[in-house]
Design a protein that fits this description.
The structure is a homodimer. With about 230 residues, chain A is an all-alpha fold. Chain A has a single domain, classed as Tetracycline Repressor, domain 2 (Orthogonal Bundle), CATH 1.10.357. Chain A is built from ten helices and no strands. Chain A starts with a helix and ends in an 18-residue tail after the last helix. The relative contact order of chain A is 0.10. At the A-B interface, helix 2, helix 7, helix 9 and helix 10 of A face helix 2, helix 7, helix 9 and helix 10 of B. Chain B binds a DNA duplex (30 and 30 nucleotides) through helix 2 and helix 4. Chains A, B: This is TetR/AcrR family transcriptional regulator. Chains A, B: Pfam families: TetR_N.
DNA sequence: AATAAAAAACAGACTGACCTGTTTTTATTT
DNA sequence: AAATAAAAACAGGTCAGTCTGTTTTTTATT
């Protein structure tokens, strides 16, 4: 019906016109409401009327912007990705991550992304994608669109000579963070996650030191210039 | 109404009577059907009529054994835990795990438990528990009932002098496996999990060697008697 | 042991509520 | 005036829980 969700949702809201701005604002409100609802009631109980009500708009307005529920869900994930981006920019700016110690970045990732309730929403979407193949394809597309940038950031962060091992390390950390998110959700009131995070940092520091070319034991915590050149 | 689910589901089906056996069989069929359905259509689309239909029983029979949907879900998790137990027994018997190398156990855990589609079902239940507090309490109770045995097994497996660090290591591995399960579900057709598993084994071996008292580099892969005594 | 009473297992239908997607109407912008 | 945005009502379908009735098994009684 309308253009794809991404076209409008991610388009920088420049001076395109009044209705475009109104439209973008409405989409944002709906996505925010949907995300809140998803966090609060869970994927299973999430309904389109409820999203509209929370956004304070009619169902008609909603269906105009998001024709189907799947469209709405894709919109939510795009919105989330946007939030993550903004959080990263707020923490590190657009700067090269070569100067950021691994533990600093990891703590940021847990605190601002994986440890937040909204990440559970993302997980629920991913699990829902398992059975709804069409939705899954669209969600994967959203996440794939940032995988390139993410790899680049990790490249700056770790700078393993062996890129294959670097990727392994990256995915391992990702799996760990996701697992921690689940643990935090299910066994709440449990401080084991903090300990696990610290333990992984400890291990990671050693691993990074081992993988890097001129390795000293604590090389990862004090970063130096990106490339000696 | 009837006794708790566990009483009947886990009670050894000895000569208690014809009715008890029939009941246990029916519960088993329903739980198996519910698990299958959960794996196939996902938590969101799981319905009670659909479970009954798959089990080939009437809805009346179903509601007799599981009055509410939540009862049914608790039953599924109990059933799953039972399956995991059986898989472990089939692989290692009831024997002490002190002789089992870590990598063997970890590979088993991935192959027979976390890497299976049914583990996603368990994850979906855990995520559903986030919003349904009452269900969550019951599910946690089911899983808590095995946490003692699990800790014992890991104690045999790892034998860290520092139990605190051992627990850390255990939870770290658990988080990793859960994260891998999600990755396998969402990004299927991806062999990165195997690599991550191997990488973790490699790291773990070193960690185990470091934590153990008389440590040689490869001490973890060739296990020796539980306690020198 | 035989029979009557009670309890448990099973079957099928019903209901009130709610959800998704669609269609029809009204308002706002260009 | 034309097109887009928003509102409101509608239609078809489904689900969870409940209820009534039937069959099978167990227990109590004589």
């Amino acid at each position: 019906m309308t253009g794809t969700a991404m076209d409008q949702a991610t388009r920088p809201e420049a001076a395109i016109g009044k209705q475009a701005r109104r439209s973008a604002e409405m989409r944002r409100r709906l996505c925010q409401a949907a995300l809140d609802a998803l966090c609060e009631v869970g994927y299973d109980s999430l309904t389109t009327p409820m999203i509209a009500a929370r956004a304070g708009v009619s169902r008609g307005a909603q269906t105009h912007h998001f024709a189907t529920k799947a469209d709405m869900l894709v919109g939510v994930l795009e919105y989330l990705v946007q939030i993550w981006d903004e959080a990263r920019l707020a923490a590190f700016g657009g700067k090269d991550l070569s100067d950021v110690p691994f533990d600093v970045y990891l703590r940021f990732a847990w605190r601002e992304i994986f440890g937040k309730p909204s990440y559970i929403a993302a997980l629920e979407l991913m699990l829902a994608a398992r059975v709804d193949k069409a939705l899954g394809e669209r969600l994967r597309q959203v996440l794939d669109s940032i995988v390139g940038d993410r790899n680049l950031r990790w490249r700056q962060l770790l700078r393993f000579p062996d890129v294959r091992r670097e990727e392994q390390f990256q995915y391992m950390t990702l799996c760990l963070l996701r697992g921690m998110a689940i643990h935090a959700s299910f066994n709440r009131g449990d401080d084991v996650n903090e300990a696990v995070l610290e333990a992984w940092i400890e291990i990671a520091d050693k691993l990074i030191a081992m993988e890097r070319p001129g390795a000293g034991a604590k090389s990862s915590r004090r970063a130096r210039k990106p490339v000696p050149r």
